[in-house]
Design goal:
Layout lengths: L1 H18 L7 H27 L5 E2 L8 H5 L8 E5 L17 E7 L5 E2 L5 E7 L4
Parallel strand pairs: 2-5
Antiparallel strand pairs: 1-4, 3-5
Helix pairs in contact: 1-2
Keywords: Signal
Protein name: PASTA domain-containing protein
Length: 133
């Protein structure tokens, strides 16, 4: 799970940095900003791994249903062993870079909320498109 969490965190950081793009200006400024972002990513991943190492297991599975997927994977779900995230049409959202850029809401989870899980218990999420407000 830690590798998955770090991968998801790195992907989220990369997507956020990519969305910041430059509308012009000096190339040196863009390169400098990219270097700063790249330097920050490992320390964030290291902090996440340290956070997960301090948790005690087993613990009760949180209720992720109705939560925004992007918020979960970098916060409350970070230390859980999420092994699959599936879209409504069966697509593998977890391993699809384009799919991770879409706003998703968790529709269901296995195991159910309240179930005692370890750090290695496989967790699967099914998601639906997030409602636009």
């Amino acid at each position: 799970m830690r590798r998955t969490a770090i991968t998801v965190l790195t992907l989220a950081a990369a997507l956020a940095c990519g969305a910041c793009g430059s509308s012009g200006g000096e190339g040196a400024a863009s390169t400098s900003a990219a270097a700063s972002s790249s330097a920050a990513a490992p320390s964030s991943a290291q902090t996440a791994a340290q956070q997960c190492d301090t948790q005690t297991w087993p613990q009760k599975m949180p209720d992720f249903k109705g939560k925004v997927l992007g918020d979960l994977v970098v916060n409350s779900a970070l230390c859980f062993n999420i092994t699959a995230i599936t879209g409504p049409d069966g697509t593998d959202v977890m391993h699809d870079a384009a799919g991770m850029t879409k706003p998703w809401t968790v529709a269901s989870q296995t195991p159910a909320a309240g179930t005692s899980v370890t750090a290695k218990t496989p967790i699967t999420l099914k998601v639906t498109a997030a409602q636009q407000k």
